[in-house]
């Protein structure tokens, strides 16, 4: 929608740069990290000697020292420097990185340069991490295994949470039986708005995300290259290339420009020009987001769905290169999409979580007790205020969200409790997670979750949990284990649903009790629903879903998925996409002979996972849905593209997944 960004920024930028709460040790000059940098002679000497030391470790430290040891040793040196003079972390690590060709200069500056509002550098967070962490212990091992990938993943300490809750009673091992009535809930995920999307720009680029004016393909097309001749479209289709700009007005009417973007095809340095509604290697232009929301409203009306509420499982900001994501873009993306959701979905309550992209700098979130939480508070405040303004959260819930990393709990009009968590608290790219990393709850989110679950269990209330990142991927081992044990304790009696996004793929994870060799029906305890995405990145069709939910137990009775064929919009003359029904899970997987009156619970999905494992046909069905029938769906019978599907579906944490892959010797193709 036409949207003018009224700048909260002036306010927020001030906060971002200045609101550093000092850590407890008063003699450490953390403020200086964020001030403009001039080095005196002594400092310059220190810089030189530290760079020399890091270089020696990198280059010459005996042929004996393993890469893991060297990584740890560098962290130790960095930690010493962070205690001595934190502002020198940036010049030292940047110079070390460039001199030793650890990365190209831009990447070195992004990783180690001090945070600014213009570029997504996270050197200040790196410096804060070095200051806080214990490099010689578990923290250092963990960092070097997950970030530098040079150490083995350290053994996860034994975690026993049994004193955190009342003992599990026999009745807690059985889920309540559904009634015969249902209501509907919308689930949308991963919009990833590409604000600088440009029709005619390179849609086949060498960067991770394409379709902006700064994207390019490192290989020039051959002389005389002509897209219209090289594409496989017919002459008639080619006369309909979608090079018109369009927009949606407040009533969701679509307006197409009278004239197409000019001279697109005469640019012979472009392999594949981006068309209006998006492309398979690009994030979502705003018209795609509007079109998705419009299709939701239209299907709701047409089918009389009357959604009771909606969940949004995160990721609003795009996958542009870090150098092109500034604070303003991140905040604006968040604001813009929530605004579009509110103006389209009207009174439908949306219960959102933030994703790993929905923060600035990327993925960073500091614990209250780290002393650095203020750096990111702008985000929780902005979100809490917005979600309250839109009537999604009431005042006290919004207040909680603002103070607790956007986490909260709400009870719906149907008496279901929805608990929302911020998954950056367990995400491997959040540098603050390498501080005191054996702490079972450094953010306090898990205690909150336990408290809410204990309270609900006591009154036989059922609960849904929503977060962005599934534990099967990119979650650090200690919080993943804690989260898993909590879910096990409250399944299946209290926890009626777990919902994630993040992978952009239509997937699920079954949670089993016991060992890897014991993925049996009796051991299936719960499942996580991983929603597909609206963004096409990478090589998927845009899609969303809704659930029919049992009125009494809030168990999921069925899921219904909608999508459109993005490639059809390349040659439809910039007309609106045509959204279609894709599939419903109960019918699509009826091979498992599931009774009509039973919910699509862990037992159902256990059976589906087994079929995916044993039948190429069902593996193909799953992989078609996973990518929503895009042109890039692998052929399960004639390629290795579907390998690894079973272990992904039959694992809940990354540790489970690795154990499964090892046990079944499954080739690891499709994580
Ligand atoms: C190499 O490592 C071994 C075993 O850790 C040690 O005994 C030996 O002294 C080391 N050699 C050098 C040159 O550091
Ligand atoms: C070289 O590495 C070893 C262990 O890997 C460490 O004990 C030693 O201090 C390192 N030397 C330097 C100069 O960092
Ligand atoms: C649900 O079951 C009750 C009792 O068996 C019955 O009266 C009612 O009509 C059923 N409702 C629906 C929607 O089938
Ligand atoms: C055209 O089709 C051929 C054969 O299916 C394929 O190899 C080629 O990649 C396609 N070209 C484009 C531009 O999609
Ligand atoms: C081209 O677009 C027009 C509408 O703008 C449509 O009627 C026609 O069917 C399209 N042709 C093809 C081959 O898609
Ligand atoms: C590319 O080929 C089409 C015919 O398929 C032609 O109309 C167009 O002028 C060509 N473009 C260039 C830049 O040569
Ligand atoms: C995409 O670019 C690569 C070169 O980087 C080229 O080989 C390939 O054919 C291009 N594909 C399309 C569909 O244009
Ligand atoms: C950071 O942003 C500024 C201003 O947009 C730009 O001039 C500079 O090149 C960027 N730095 C990097 C590392 O991309
Ligand atoms: C580090 O974690 C432990 C628990 O593993 C906890 O007791 C301790 O308070 C934490 N330290 C800090 C500074 O938070
Ligand atoms: C495997 O599952 C069975 C039945 O649920 C249980 O009795 C047994 O203890 C489990 N074994 C392991 C190793 O988890
Ligand atoms: C799933 O539902 C069926 C039928 O109601 C039930 O037998 C089974 O125990 C349930 N599974 C779980 C894990 O709750
Ligand atoms: C889009 O892709 C699908 C799946 O590969 C294919 O069936 C369809 O024909 C394609 N549409 C166009 C316009 O090429």
TrEMBL record:
Gene3D superfamilies: 3.60.21.10. This is Metallo-dependent phosphatase. It holds the Pfam family Metallophos. The keyword Cell inner membrane does not apply. Residues 1-19 form the signal peptide. Keywords: Glycoprotein, Hydrolase, Signal. Residues 305-504 form the Calcineurin-like phosphoesterase domain. One of its GO terms (molecular function) is phosphoric diester hydrolase activity.
């Amino acid at each position: 929608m036409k949207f003018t960004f009224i700048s909260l920024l002036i306010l927020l930028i001030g906060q971002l740069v200045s609101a550093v709460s000092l850590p407890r040790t008063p003699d450490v000059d953390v403020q200086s990290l964020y001030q403009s940098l001039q080095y005196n002679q002594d400092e310059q000497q220190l810089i030189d000697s530290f760079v020399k030391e890091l270089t020696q470790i990198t280059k010459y430290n005996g042929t004996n020292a393993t890469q893991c040891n060297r990584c740890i040793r560098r962290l130790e040196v960095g930690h010493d420097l962070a205690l001595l003079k934190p502002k020198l972390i940036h010049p030292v690590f940047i110079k070390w990185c460039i001199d030793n060709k650890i990365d190209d200069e831009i990447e070195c500056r992004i990783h180690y340069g001090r945070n600014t509002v213009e570029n997504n550098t996270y050197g200040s967070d790196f410096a804060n991490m070095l200051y806080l962490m214990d490099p010689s212990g578990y923290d250092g091992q963990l960092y070097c295994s997950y970030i530098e990938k040079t150490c083995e993943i350290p053994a996860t300490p034994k975690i026993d949470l049994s004193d955190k809750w009342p003992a599990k009673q026999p009745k807690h091992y059985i889920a309540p039986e559904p009634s015969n009535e249902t209501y509907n809930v919308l689930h949308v995920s991963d919009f990833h708005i590409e604000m600088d999307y440009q029709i005619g720009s390179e849609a086949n680029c060498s960067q991770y995300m394409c379709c902006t004016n700064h994207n390019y393909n490192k290989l020039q097309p051959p002389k005389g290259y002509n897209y219209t001749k090289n594409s496989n479209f017919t002459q008639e289709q080619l006369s309909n290339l979608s090079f018109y700009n369009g927009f949606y007005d407040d009533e969701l009417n679509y307006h197409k420009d009278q004239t197409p973007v000019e001279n697109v095809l005469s640019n012979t340095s472009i392999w594949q020009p981006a068309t209006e509604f998006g492309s398979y290697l690009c994030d979502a232009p705003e018209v795609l987001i509007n079109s998705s929301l419009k299709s939701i409203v239209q299907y709701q009306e047409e089918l009389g769905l009357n959604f009771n509420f909606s969940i949004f499982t995160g990721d609003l900001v795009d996958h542009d290169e870090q150098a092109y994501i500034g604070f303003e873009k991140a905040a604006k993306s968040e604001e813009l999409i929530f605004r579009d959701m509110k103006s389209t979905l009207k009174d439908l309550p949306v219960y959102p979580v933030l994703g790993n992209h929905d923060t600035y700098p990327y993925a960073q979130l500091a614990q209250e007790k780290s002393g650095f939480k203020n750096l990111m508070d702008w985000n929780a405040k902005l979100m809490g205020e917005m979600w309250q303004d839109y009537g999604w959260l009431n005042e006290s819930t919004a207040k909680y969200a603002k103070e607790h990393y956007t986490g909260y709990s709400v009870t719906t009009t149907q008496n279901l409790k929805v608990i929302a968590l911020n998954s950056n608290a367990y995400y491997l790219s959040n540098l603050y997670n390498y501080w005191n990393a054996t702490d079972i709850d450094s953010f306090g989110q898990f205690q909150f979750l336990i408290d809410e679950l204990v309270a609900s269990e006591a009154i036989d209330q059922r609960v849904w949990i929503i977060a962005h990142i599934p534990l099967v991927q990119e979650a650090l081992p200690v919080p993943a284990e804690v989260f898993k044990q909590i879910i096990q304790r409250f399944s299946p009696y209290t926890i009626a649903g777990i919902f994630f996004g993040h992978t952009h793929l239509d997937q699920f994870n079954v949670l089993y009790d016991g060992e890897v060799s014991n993925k049996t029906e009796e051991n299936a305890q719960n499942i996580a629903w991983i929603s597909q995405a609206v963004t096409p990145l990478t090589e998927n069709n845009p899609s969303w879903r809704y659930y029919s939910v049992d009125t009494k137990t809030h168990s999921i009775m069925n899921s219904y998925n909608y999508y459109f064929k993005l490639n059809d919009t390349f040659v439809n003359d910039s007309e609106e996409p045509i959204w279609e029904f894709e599939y419903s899970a109960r019918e699509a997987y009826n091979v498992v002979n599931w009774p009509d009156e039973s919910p699509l619970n862990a037992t159902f999905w256990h059976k589906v996972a087994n079929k995916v494992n044993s039948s190429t046909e069902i593996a193909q069905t799953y992989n078609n849905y996973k990518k929503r029938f895009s042109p890039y769906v692998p052929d399960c019978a004639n390629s290795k593209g579907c390998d690894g599907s079973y272990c992904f579906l039959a694992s809940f944490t990354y540790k489970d997944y690795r154990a499964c892959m090892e046990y079944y010797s499954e080739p690891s193709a499709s994580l």
